[in-house]
Design goal:
Strand 2 and strand 3 form a beta hairpin. The chain has 114 residues and is of the alpha+beta class. The chain has 2 helices and 5 strands; from the N terminus they run αβββαββ. The radius of gyration is 13 Å and the shape is globular. Pfam families: HIT (PF01230).
């Protein structure tokens, strides 16, 4: 499991401020401080799961909720097209070990991403 002392844990505790886009009892969505597109929002669960690879059957409803919130965030941001990315593990580009979804859009996105 992720530690609550990651930067995202510190954001959730209010120790570090963020530009909140959406929040509910299960998650928080906020603007990425290093955006890769005009819209780049992170959606994080309040429960500290380190990465998608550590999620269990108990997290099924939470994972579905995070995807629905990603779509809600895209609509709130006025996006008609967007990319949702989940990096799981260091070799996949994950740098903060607290599960998070990237909602990226506002410009054409190439494929493959990298």
């Amino acid at each position: 499991m992720a530690s609550s002392d990651t930067i995202f844990g510190r954001i959730l505790s209010g120790e570090i401020p963020c530009q909140e886009v959406y929040a509910d009892d299960l998650c928080l969505a906020f603007r990425d401080v290093n955006p890769q597109a005009p819209v780049h929002v992170l959606v994080i669960p309040r429960e500290p799961i380190a990465q998608l690879g550590e999620a269990t059957d108990e997290h099924e409803a939470l994972l579905g909720h995070l995807l629905l919130v990603a779509a809600k965030v895209a609509r709130l941001e006025g996006l008609e097209s967007w990319r949702t990315v989940i990096n799981s593990g260091a070799d996949a580009g994950q740098t903060v070990f607290h599960l998070h979804l990237h909602v990226i859009g506002g410009r054409p996105l190439a494929w493959p991403p990298g």
